[in-house]
TrEMBL record:
Residues 13-78, 118-180 form the XdhC- CoxI domain. It comes from the Bacteria. This is XdhC/CoxI family protein. Signal peptide: none annotated.
Length: 390
């Protein structure tokens, strides 16, 4: 919903009704992840996408119908490999899409959700997408780290789903949860989709050089909140890094230690050390490799710089297990030359680390393209609606 939130809120504020389609579950090589949304406004304007074009026409028709009759609907789109090109969903994946009417009456908590997201406050929206009582479909519960708003139909359901959704929110994950009709944890009948809106992950870039400027631009595009830090005041200026969210003048290792101590970094935070100067690198990497819960730690430099850096870190007392967390020299082998190309190689390594990619050309691999937690053996049974021609 994040990508369609502004136009959704505009219609909500003026008393209009919009049709919101959300991918709530995917299987095999689905083109968009769970949480991807497409909005159809009251005047027929379309914002966002649920499949990159494969099923948008059918979803548009459903959203228009939902706007008119006010009844939410859960639909599955998928195809067999033999029918891939004839029906348009050429990826061979399967999508569960929930389409619901959104108005100030059906979703009075929307403005609060928008404010939380804008203020980088963690918030999740739990929506009933399947229930034997049609009156419960589309109900919302807004979950925050300390409390919740809304109503899923019973206090028991609110408590159970609120507790479980809070765990997903803490991990920054979306997911579909199954319960009994009244929120019983052992049972079936009610399915709830939890859409988590955690604050943007952070990228901490150390070294105010041209490579850092290029990386800040790309990282911002990828959704990171970017901080550039350097001890040299003449180089660390907002004018040189307009895409960075903040530019800090200070000794890198001290700044990072302060951020760790204040709890301002987490398991999604990425650290990129581009200074390749031992007086900055070594104390900074000592902090990063031993004190932080970081998703990725990379350091720029030549092979000679890398070997010298490892020697200095070992002399400082770091173990081989500590050093194994370090990606150095930073980035994938793309033959990069320019700062922009180098930024792409760094981002590519970060993405591969995040999702378990190999970094190999896809054409050389036989495995599925998309890496996710679902195994094909978990594919649910049930009728699959073919996608219409694109």
């Amino acid at each position: 919903m994040r990508e369609v939130l502004n136009p959704l809120l505009t219609g909500w504020q003026t008393g209009g009704v919009a049709g919101l389609a959300t991918v709530v579950r995917t299987f095999q090589s689905a083109p968009r992840p769970a949480g991807a949304s497409m909005l159809v406004t009251a005047d027929g304007t379309v914002v966002g996408s649920v499949s990159g074009g494969c099923v948008e026409g059918a979803v548009y028709d459903l959203a228009t119908q939902v706007i008119e009759d006010g009844r939410p609907v859960l639909v599955r789109y998928g195809i067999s490999d033999d029918d891939a090109f004839s029906v348009g969903l050429t990826c061979g994946g399967i999508l569960d899409v929930f389409v619901e009417p959104i108005s100030s009456g059906s979703f009075p908590e929307l403005a609060g959700v928008e404010k939380d997201i804008a203020d980088s406050v963690p918030v999740a929206v739990a929506t009933v997408i399947e229930h034997p009582d049609p009156h419960r479909l589309g109900r919302h519960l807004i979950i925050r780290p300390k409390g919740s708003d809304g109503d899923l139909g019973s206090e028991r359901a609110n408590r159970a789903i609120g507790d479980d959704a809070r765990g997903l929110l803490a991990a920054g994950r979306n997911g579909t949860l199954t319960y009994g009709p009244d929120g019983e944890r052992r049972g079936e009948g009610m399915r709830v989709f939890v859409n988590s809106y955690a604050p943007r992950p952070r990228m901490l870039v150390f070294g105010a050089i041209d490579f850092a400027a290029a990386l800040a631009r790309l990282a911002s595009f990828l959704g990171y909140r970017v901080t550039v830090c350097d001890a040299r005041e003449v180089f660390a200026t907002p004018a040189r890094f307009p895409e960075a969210d903040e530019v800090i003048v200070g000794w890198p290792h001290r700044y990072l230690a302060e951020q760790v101590a204040a709890g301002l970094v987490d398991e999604r935070t990425v650290v990129c050390v581009l200074t390749h100067d031992p007086k900055f690198d070594v104390p900074l990497l000592e902090v990063a490799l031993t004190r932080g819960p970081f998703a990725y730690i990379g350091a720029m430099g030549s092979r000679r710089t890398h070997d010298d850096r490892l020697r200095r870190l070992r002399e400082s007392g770091l173990t081989e297990a500590d050093l194994a967390r370090l990606h150095s020299p930073i980035g994938l082998d793309l033959g990069s030359r320019t700062p922009e190309e180098t930024a792409v190689s760094i981002a590519a390594e970060i993405i591969a680390k995040q999702w378990g990619g190999s970094g190999e050309p896809l054409g050389r691999l036989a495995d599925r393209i998309h890496h996710d937690d679902l195994d094909e053996a978990t594919l649910p049974t049930g009728q699959v609606q073919p996608a219409p021609p694109a």
